[in-house]
């Protein structure tokens, strides 16, 4: 009865989601929206004109009637956000045009039966919080990366960690393992190489103290000590993992997959996987953004070939051109390998044929794999990925990190070594046991009465326009 009363009380609540315009940022907010919808909240998600034309909708899922999309201009309707100008210019233009359109959107709904009560904004778009405060609307910052990375950025922003880091002594933070320079986010490790991105991640703290909520796509037991440390600085609510409910607690109807993709999905991998024994396939994917040089791509290919394991490698069109057809043919000879442009990752990760996942350690891929109990081979490239890789190997103990040489290249021998450890050795069994433990804890977090479920309920209860 109480659950019915809570749901009725939520029906008049309307949340506006404002994501950073890329797949890896939109889908977590969309998955969170489905959780809110299941609790009776109406949700409208803001998508740029370019992204609305570029993204493919997953046809196997049906969104609830209480989730809607609004399309606005970010100033790059033809070429895409951050494709034409520098990242700094793109963000500045998006702030000017996006904030104007956001105000008009709020005013539009003010004249309807569903006024906006709350704005949940991607943490790298702090101007959305300023707009929320103009209208007396609850503002919630949504952190799309792990708490640990955000804690490091907070220390840099407030001058507690000075850049560039000159000491070779490992760095210590509450709740962290000791971090060497190679374990730090790339914007901190090499600040001069990524000045615009460093500014982007620093700006999230400009007004975060004004946010009514700080929501994190993680779950408490995954980062308990770090969450406790951050909570001493500002209130943090873990509401993740934002993995579709079908793969976890199954409480949200029709929530089976990530609904939006920048590439057309190919489902033919399922038939191929059915022909492979349990735990025999190495799944390889580096996400929708990472681009590697030709040498690194060849080392991965030769490492896979040398290992002799079955593999499924997702390579987008431009990346595929870095490898010769001859090498592809050699790798895939005898049905050992399958190379595809884009697949439904959650379906693949949940397939019993998958033995491990070679990943760039993007946060979405990492938390999806852990939520499905899949061990990892970590090949971090940039941004938050080195820090995530450190936790994968030394804290969560669900994978091994491939060592890079003095030129930053992860050689075929190292890749093959890690694959053999995970797929054949006793350590691989331990990693698999640990991965399943984290899966169980992820399910516990989002199930009724779990930490994330309770935090979402707390958030919903306080969506009240001032």
UniProtKB/TrEMBL annotation:
Segments crossing the lipid bilayer: none
Enzyme class, spelled out: transferase
Molecular functions (GO terms): quercetin 3-O-glucosyltransferase activity; quercetin 7-O-glucosyltransferase activity
Family matches, as Pfam families: UDPGT
Top-level taxon: Eukaryota
EC number of the protein: 2.4.1.-
Keyword entries, A-Z: Glycosyltransferase, Transferase
InterPro entries: UDP_glucos_trans, UDP_glycos_trans_CS
Family affiliation: Belongs to the UDP-glycosyltransferase family.
Protein name (record): Glycosyltransferase
């Amino acid at each position: 009865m109480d659950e019915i009363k809570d749901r009725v009380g939520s029906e008049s609540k309307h949340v506006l989601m404002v994501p950073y315009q890329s797949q890896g940022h939109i889908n977590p907010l969309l998955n969170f929206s489905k959780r809110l919808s299941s609790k009776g909240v109406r949700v409208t998600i803001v998508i740029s004109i370019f992204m609305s034309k570029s993204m493919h909708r997953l046809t196997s899922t049906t969104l609830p009637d209480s989730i809607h999309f609004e399309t606005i201009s970010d100033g790059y309707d033809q070429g895409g956000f951050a494709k034409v100008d520098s990242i700094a210019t793109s963000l500045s233009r998006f702030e000017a045009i996006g904030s104007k359109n956001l105000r008009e959107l709020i005013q539009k709904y003010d004249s309807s039966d569903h006024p906006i009560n709350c704005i949940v904004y991607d943490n790298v778009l702090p101007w959305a919080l300023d707009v929320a405060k103009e209208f007396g609307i609850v503002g919630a910052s949504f952190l799309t990366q792990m708490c640990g990375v955000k804690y490091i950025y907070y220390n840099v922003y407030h001058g507690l960690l000075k850049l560039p880091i000159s000491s070779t002594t490992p760095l210590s933070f509450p709740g962290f393992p000791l971090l060497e320079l190679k374990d730090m986010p790339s914007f901190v490790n090499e600040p001069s190489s990524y000045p615009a991105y460093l500014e982007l991640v620093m700006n999230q703290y400009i007004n975060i103290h004004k946010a009514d909520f700080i929501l994190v796509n993680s779950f408490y037991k995954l980062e308990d000590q770090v969450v406790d440390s951050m909570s001493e600085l500002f209130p943090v609510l873990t509401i993740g993992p934002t993995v579709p409910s079908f793969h976890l607690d199954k409480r949200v109807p029709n929530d089976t997959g990530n609904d939006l993709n920048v590439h057309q999905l190919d489902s033919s991998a399922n038939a191929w996987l059915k022909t492979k024994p349990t735990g025999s396939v190495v799944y390889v994917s580096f996400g929708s953004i990472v681009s590697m040089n030709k040498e690194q791509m060849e080392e991965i290919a030769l490492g896979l070939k040398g290992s002799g394991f079955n593999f499924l490698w997702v390579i987008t069109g431009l990346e595929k051109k870095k490898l010769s057809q001859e090498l592809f043919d050699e790798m895939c000879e005898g049905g050992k390998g399958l190379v595809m442009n884009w697949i439904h990752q959650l379906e693949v990760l949940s397939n019993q044929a998958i033995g491990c996942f070679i990943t760039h350690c993007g946060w979405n891929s990492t938390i999806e794999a852990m939520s499905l109990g899949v061990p990892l081979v970590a090949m971090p490239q940039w941004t938050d990925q080195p820090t995530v890789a450190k936790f994968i190997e030394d804290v969560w103990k669900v994978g091994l990190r491939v060592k890079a040489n003095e030129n930053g290249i992860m050689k075929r021998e190292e890749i093959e070594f890690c694959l053999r450890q995970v797929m054949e050795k006793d350590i691989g069994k331990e990693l698999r046991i640990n991965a399943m433990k984290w899966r169980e804890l992820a399910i516990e977090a989002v199930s009724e009465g779990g930490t994330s479920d309770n935090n979402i309920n707390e958030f919903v209860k306080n969506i009240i326009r001032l």
